[in-house]
Predict the structure.
Amino acid sequence: MARRVFFSFHYQRDIWRVNQIRNIPNVTGCAAAGFQDASLWEEAERKGESAIKKLIDDGLANTSVTVVFIGYKTVGRKYINYEIDQSIKRGNGIVGIQIHHLKDKNGNIDPAGEIPYKLEANGYKAYKYVDHEKLANRIEEAAKAAGK
């Protein structure tokens, strides 16, 4: 079954890593604030917090699962926490996926980042990214756990 999925990640630091894995089988309409169009994110940043939150809320519309991509500096990012909170409110399935070991645009990898507290505190699982097939399976598991 194809899923509409919201990708939550530290945009400035991890966009390169996320772009390496964004074409996932059985996932349609991958959305994230600014993910498909960086100019939307930049414009929202200039307009302030309410514009960023609206962009996130619009990205979450009609999704059934949120994937929180976890890099070295993900923990504590204000909008990551907002995306997790809004995903919980919507009843989305949620899964954390560690991506620190994927190369950035300069070919560097990072140490593992901490799992966001809001994931652990709410019983959501986190896994290291292995391949598209495993990620698609994790997305489906999260959807089913949420009854979607």
